[in-house]
User: Fold Alpha/beta hydrolase from Parapedobacter deserti.
Amino acid sequence: MIFILTAQRNFFALFIGLFTACLIGPATARETYRTEENINYRSGASDDTYIRERCILDIYYPEDATGFPTVVWFHGGGITGGEKFIPNELKEKGLAVVAVNYRLSPKVKNPAYIDDAAAAIAWVFKHIDEYGGDPGKIFISGHSAGGYLAAMVGLDKSWLQQYGEDADRLAGIIDFSGHAVTHMTIRAERGISDKQPIIDEFAPLYHVRSDAPPLVLVSGDRELELLGRYEETAYFYRMMKVVGHQQVYLYELDGFDHGAMAAPGFHILLRHVNELTRKDK
Assistant:
């Protein structure tokens, strides 16, 4: 399904906030949350200082609760910058959030950062039940470069297979304005212009398949987004439909550019987390 969300910003914010409150509901007065920081998601000691520095995650979760869903969140920054954070819009919503750091270019080259994303997701599969979360309700998401990493690991099953996990166990993939073609930083590492699109094994588009987990694609306004980003996202959606995927959704957030689209995007994320986990109840 394709959604174009248009409105004046104040009305849009009010509408989507009320809509989300109806879907998710506020945290109860007795519900408290805890954050554990800088957990190394690569098992075993490493002599690599950069792995110890970057291959860490934070987990924010409701205490004294069980069976809750988890959102694994990858920050943006072009795979050359950025830092893990727990989005404020996802706090106190009855779910866990795992914020992930990963190694960055140019200190490492492709596919190190994709492998880091897979290792972090595998860690969540293996450990989320220790915090009370349901391993059957894990969603992966991210903005820009983070959306690209989520889509790559969720669609190309080989990344999680090497850690003994199945990407099809994911409850959903929610991609905020990530590259559908091969990422511009990977192209830059190869000496290819960021204006030259490539679709190879490092493009989410290359791995479209009918049996993938539910896929939610969120883009900013096509006139305000990064050059070509909406169009490649729309083509990604179209190709998922062509191969027969039954649960793919495309949202265009009218009036929001590449950076600003994340805030309303979180409300879309919460809506889909709620709907997809309700089916399990």
About this structure: The first strand starts at residue 2 and ends at 5. Residues 2-278 form a domain with the Rossmann fold fold (CATH 3.40.50.1820).
